[in-house]
Amino acid sequence: MGLISVPVDPVPSRTKIDLQLHRPYRTWLGFGRLRCDWCGDRWGDHGCTVRESAARLFLYTATASQRAAALDSGEITTTDLKLHRHARPHSRTPARHRRRKPRPYPTPPNPLAALRLELEAATR
Ligand SMILES: [Zn+2]
């Protein structure tokens, strides 16, 4: 019973760790451009590439209250909220190498149907 009542966090722990680790800092004693403190990547609108994908995954998986808490603490910014809308920009372009649909599995013979036929034959 105890296992059932434990609330499961839908956000992967790796995502939360990445959001904590990848933070911006200014180079040149605070006068340069923003870079990631953890991987040294250039800091864009959504941070470095690792942070951007982590933020995207967070928005996919987090509950509404988790999202609100992350916004309050500054882990997620308001610009990050626009991420999930453009998650798949090329989804409308047709796949160049579209795979053929796999053929449906042959239906296995139903042993129960065979048994019923046998019983029907026996009762006659
Ligand atoms: Zn980073």
TrEMBL record:
<feature type="region of interest" description="Disordered">
    <location>
        <begin position="79"/>
        <end position="113"/>
    </location>
</feature>
<feature type="compositionally biased region" description="Basic residues">
    <location>
        <begin position="83"/>
        <end position="103"/>
    </location>
</feature>
<protein>
    <submittedName>
        <fullName>Uncharacterized protein</fullName>
    </submittedName>
</protein>
